[in-house]
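okkk here we go again. third time trying to get the flavin-adenine dinucleotide bound version out, last two times i messed up the smiles copy paste (missing a bracket lol). double checked this time i swear
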Amino acid sequence: MRMAVYDVLIVGGGIAGLYAALQFPKDVQILLLTKGEAGISGSALAQGGIAAVLEHDDDSYELHFADTMTAGGNKNNPSAVEQLIREGPAAVRDIIRLGVDFDAEENGALQKTLEGGHSRRRIMHRRDQTGAEIIRALWERVREKANITIQEYTVLCKLAALPDGFSAQTVNTKFQQSGSFCAGFVILATGGIGQAYRYTTNPAISTGDGIRIASTLGAKIKNLHYVQFHPTAMPPRQDERSCFLVSEAVRGEGACLLNRDGERFMQSYDERLELAPRDVISRAIIKESRRLGGDTRFYLDITHKGSAWLEKRFPAIFAACSGRGLDMGRESVPVFPCQHYLMGGIDVDLDGKTTVPRLYAAGECAHTGLHGANRLASNSLPEALVWGRHAALNIMRCIRSGYAMPRGAERDGERCEPVDRTASAILPSLIDEIRALLQESCFVFADKQAIPAALARVEEIRKKLDACPDAGNPELCEVKSIAFAAKMILEGHRDEPEAV
Ligand SMILES: Cc1cc2nc3c(=O)[nH]c(=O)nc-3n(C[C@H](O)[C@H](O)[C@H](O)COP(=O)(O)OP(=O)(O)OC[C@H]3O[C@@H](n4cnc5c(N)ncnc54)[C@H](O)[C@@H]3O)c2cc1C
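finally!!
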């Protein structure tokens, strides 16, 4: 069979993949894949904003550096932090040039909000739909580029190394067709692993496929147990899979956390109160819950701002509360921690290079070391921009310096087998089981005693999945990715000294 040939394959249409795609000159042929509809990504859900020091009168790179290191428990890679802080501001200005419309004061100055762990107001936003606005603008620019071929509903299932790049196997889930092509370089920008958990803010696409695929090629995967739990999410409704996030910016604008008795409690746990970093607040909620005999009723209260102000500043959150019969201007909002973000991932250097030649990663699937053990709020959108750009620039240097590239519009490839879905029937119960195991053993405080049994069961499930007929079944690929992430998270906690 004949395979199409591209210079660069970008897997992912979130902020990392889109911004990387826009860095390439027009003579470089790009194929950009998204698993579902273009607009569905973790990026599109980002609420609070994007952090960068744009002005130095009241803020500085040093302060942003210190805040990032403190939130990360000083487990961050200082070179990565330095790169983000120095290059983030130019990236933010660049996306404004590309059409992103952040909220501004009447005099045109950008509005800046505050979030937990930040010592200054340095977070640019578009109300509480910052991600959707960034993604709108970047997709518009990407669609204008003749050198970028977009394939939506196309799941990357496998990558294999070739002397001059990679061959890739995909399945188009709209037309149930498998496909095959090759590319000289690959950027994985597949996002997080939230779907491995029972409760997550992440969308359905966040199954960690890129991480598993990189691992099968021998790439180093690092710190997958560095998982962030957001303290303030609303539980999903019956028809929903994901929890609805109540942005940290709500606390930045003065919201208090209350226990079931309507009492503030953060003063018992951290002097930064509701503006402590996320891991600190999530742990405080769990400790307070234990103090109250396991009661999980917690609330976020911002009623002092009133409904009109809240509806204007946080329209999506206000609407989500209204949809649950709540007026957040008059009542406090029920919240509890849930899985939110992955700090670990495919290990990359400052150029986004993995340990496999020609394979790059950017965004949430990558481990840059920037976040340490806990991400500072609003640092992941700028990270995706900075590393997406570096990956693209590094690939361009390789191409221009004469790396061997797959040539011609097509080349011979292996026959594509028809999609075999016989395994699909057993998958839902296996996913549910993995999610329950992770939820119980690796939530805010990992349960060290439960981990060996959970790991043994996940290994059994992985063997079962490996034995299934695997001709590009996209659901099977996803469950394998979830199971791989679960194994890595469990192993990481097993080997980590216990948190206090
Ligand atoms: C509710 C919520 C709120 C957030 N708020 C903020 C915030 O305010 N500020 C901040 O900095 N961060 C925030 N984050 C985190 C941030 O949004 C993400 O970390 C970041 O957007 C991830 O971008 P990405 O490009 O790496 O991945 P994503 O945006 O998740 O995109 C992943 C892409 O990969 C594609 N893909 C995945 N697997 C495959 C496959 N096998 N084949 C083909 N395509 C595939 C998907 O279709 C998708 O297009 C938030 C996250 C969530 C969930």
